[in-house]
Amino acid sequence: MAFLSKILNLSAILMVGFIYFARGDGSAGFTQSKAVYYPNSIQQGTQYGSCEYGAFGATLNGGDVSAASRLYRNGVGCGACYQVLCTNNKYCSTNGVKIVITDSGASDSTDFILSQHAFAGMGQTPDAGLAILALGYVGIQYRRVPCNYPNKNISFYIDKSSNFPYYLAFQIWYHSGDKDITAVQLCETISLTCKLLERSHGATWAVGSPPSGPLSIRMLLSGDNDNDDNDDTWLVSANNIPQNWTAGAIYDSGMQVQI
Ligand SMILES: *[C@@H]1O[C@H](CO)[C@@H](O)[C@H](O)[C@H]1NC(C)=O
Ligand SMILES: *[C@@H]1O[C@H](CO)[C@@H](O)[C@H](O)[C@H]1NC(C)=O
């Protein structure tokens, strides 16, 4: 009996050691931080985030979304995906959750203010998830990971504030991969003249006096490393935004970033 319990103890120690190792200990590209959650529905994300995704933000990624502080990067971080796992061995799973940034916010030196759904999702079980919610403030590790939207193409949502043909504002939805969209060009498909846009706020790109006719959209994908220009590539939409684009419409680009 004593022998058996020694073996059990030993395997428990090995197990803890293994889990600790599997968590990366900061060595596998993980950053150590803290996270809290905001008191939204446990089922949903938020439609009120700074990225201004609206109703799309409430259902995006099954409600596993987050506000970010420095990772928000003035809106460049909108739509970026991170693997976030909490570090309490008793309750937290080793894979944690994959979240999408939809909002900006900071609290007590946290990197993330997760949706309730994402926060509880870091638990080993639904009960452990409730225990983590009760803790409220947890140590985490996180790393950037590719977003992945099976059966979705990159799509352009024409913002409600748009006013044909004078003002065009849009968001880029379902952007797969782990690169940022750092610039956007709108190109006339007949004259081939292009206009370089700027991010107006959150995830929204906007332009007064937009080019006319069917419009091709070019998106600059940039890697994490700001010093490495070789990382940048232009992605050109396969489908055009139609000549008579309308506010509230969603246009399918006909393509996706291959990961
Ligand atoms: C836009 O134009 C296309 C083709 O010219 C037409 O089929 C479509 O009904 C138009 N849509 C709107 C909203 O006017
Ligand atoms: C994505 O675009 C391709 C090419 O236009 C199209 O065949 C496919 O149906 C689109 N996928 C979805 C989910 O709409």
UniProtKB/TrEMBL annotation:
It comes from the Eukaryota. Pfam families: DPBB_1 (PF03330), Expansin_C (PF01357). It is found in: Secreted. The keyword Protease does not apply. The keyword Amino-acid biosynthesis does not apply. Residues 166-253 form the Expansin-like CBD domain. GO terms for cellular component: extracellular region. Its main location: secreted. Keywords: Secreted, Signal. Residues 48-152 form the Expansin-like EG45 domain. Residues 1-24 form the signal peptide. Belongs to the expansin family. This is Expansin-like B1. It comes from Carex littledalei.
